[in-house]
Amino acid sequence: MSNKYGARKTVVDGITFDSKAEAKYYEQLKWLKQAKQIKDFSLQPRFELQEAFKKNSKTFRKIEYIADFLVTKLDGSKEVIDIKGMETKEFAIKRKLYEHKFDTPLKVIAFDRSLGFIELDKLKKLKRKAGKPTVKRGNSRRPSVVGKAGR
Predict the structure, then answer these.
(1) How many CB atoms are closer than 10 A to CB 30?
(2) What is the pLDDT of residue 135?
(3) Structural domains of the chain, count
(4) Residue 14 counted as domain residue
(5) For residue 19, what are the contacts with CB-CB under 8 A and spacing of at least 6?
(6) What number is the average pLDDT over the span 87-91?
(7) pTM confidence score
(8) pLDDT for 28-85, tens place per residue?
(9) Residue 26 CB: number of other CB atoms within 10 A?
(10) Following DSSP, what letter does each residue of 24-87 receive, concatenated?
(11) The domain containing residue 17 runs over which residues?
(12) Which of 65, 94, 69, 95 is nearest to 15 (CA)?
């Protein structure tokens, strides 16, 4: 069953991932840990972006961001990883709130069939660049036939 963005839930090692890309990245992290390229990693780390509060006798729930992975590198530094097929408006807001409140770097990664895992921002830049024509075209309303016969 896929969600509205086309991601299919995938089970690996008894763990259900939201997408095939997330499951694939999990397998890559397992390999990196076994090969002693990273110290450790954990799944679904939670970050409180805003605490719950009451105002005018109304209770507002906390805002929480749940990333996909927290990776501990060999030097002890940490990195938060989120696998995205596309960036939603909700995620863009949560990303800004996260970046404002936390120092641990947040890496948003996408899976591209030809490039493999790549940072989402870099992939978007490459796609924008690829979408631009290399030759500038003139006015598209101009007729393709030039001369008196074409008028």
Answers:
(1) 14
(2) 52
(3) 1
(4) yes
(5) 7, 8, 9, 10, 83, 85
(6) 90
(7) 0.76
(8) 999 999 999 999 999 999 999 999 999 999 999 999 999 999 999 999 999 999 999 8
(9) 20
(10) HHHHHHHHHHHTTSSSEEEES-EEEEE--EEETTEEE--EEEE-SEEEE-TTS-EEEEEE-SS-
(11) 10-44+66-93+104-129
(12) 69
